[in-house]
Design brief:
The protein is α+β, with helices and mostly antiparallel strands. It has a four-stranded mixed β-sheet with strand order 1-4-5-6. A two-stranded antiparallel ribbon has the order 2-3. α3 packs parallel to α4, α6 packs antiparallel against α8 and α6 crosses α9. The longest helix is centred in the last third of the chain and has 30 residues. The chain is globular. The two termini are 31 Å apart.
């Protein structure tokens, strides 16, 4: 057996990812596309990767979460998405992606490995029955991410003095380029909402343009979503640090 790389998270995923080379580095990059739906951040940035190694084309990834009782639906999405992302990496012949230290680990790990879906994974387990797949949940939290992202993009523009009338008339191409703007475009595309330079900057989760009269309330809602994301992220980071010493 030839060990291509073994990078375990020693203190932070960033350090482990930076130390990786070759195929293992590409696996880490694939994991950066996997998000915690509630926090709208990737599992690498959140230090949710407990270990990542590649041997003879087989990628072994272990995910970890802040608490033993994190919601199983979110946990399932992250494990399933990580399995799909790693499996798609050129050179990976098999993805072994598991969740550690979680009350639903056994059901989730077996279900993801069998490609059974959330309902099939939970059926007959001690975790409890699931009544539906998670597509609607994923969309709900992508819509919330769009709202939070709108706050991150628009609030700096208004701090610079833009009026509601000006903001309501702006397109995506009018906004200064930034990581937040690129992420907002990505969330819009995930929802099937146009995200080119000529498209309106501020839209609701259905894709409808938000006019000047509705803009103040819309932006207050957007701000409340981002405050929630910030608060939950801070709590999760603290819990993860206390649990794993990272």
């Amino acid at each position: 057996m030839t060990l291509l790389s073994d990078t375990r998270a020693l203190g932070s995923n960033a350090a482990a990812a930076a130390a990786a080379t070759g195929l293992a580095a590409r696996v880490w990059e694939a994991l950066r596309t996997v998000r915690d739906p509630e926090l709208d951040s990737d599992v690498v940035s959140l230090d949710f990767v407990g270990s990542c190694s590649v041997s003879d084309g087989v990628a072994h990834v272990s995910l970890r979460l802040p608490t033993y009782f994190c919601a199983p639906n979110f946990a399932f999405l992250m494990v399933a998405d990580a399995h799909d992302a790693v499996s798609a990496v050129d050179g990976v012949t098999r993805a072994d992606v598991t969740l550690a230290d979680h009350f639903a680990s056994d059901a989730i790990n077996a279900g993801v490995a069998a490609r059974a879906g959330f309902v099939g994974s939970m059926a007959g387990t001690e975790v409890g029955e699931a009544v539906a797949e998670l597509d609607d949940l994923r969309r709900t939290f992508t819509e919330r991410a769009l709202m939070a992202g709108t706050d991150l993009v628009v609030r700096p523009i208004m701090r610079e003095g833009a009026t509601p009338e000006q903001v309501a008339a702006m397109t995506l191409g009018d906004a200064p380029d930034s990581a937040d703007l690129r992420r907002l475009r990505a969330r819009r595309r995930e929802l099937g909402i146009p995200a080119d330079d000529g498209d309106p900057l501020v839209v609701d989760p259905s894709g409808a343009t938000v006019g000047v009269d509705a803009l103040p309330l819309h932006l207050r809602k957007a701000r409340s979503y981002q405050v929630g994301v910030d608060a939950n992220t801070s709590i999760c980071r603290g819990q993860l640090a206390a649990r794993y010493g990272v």
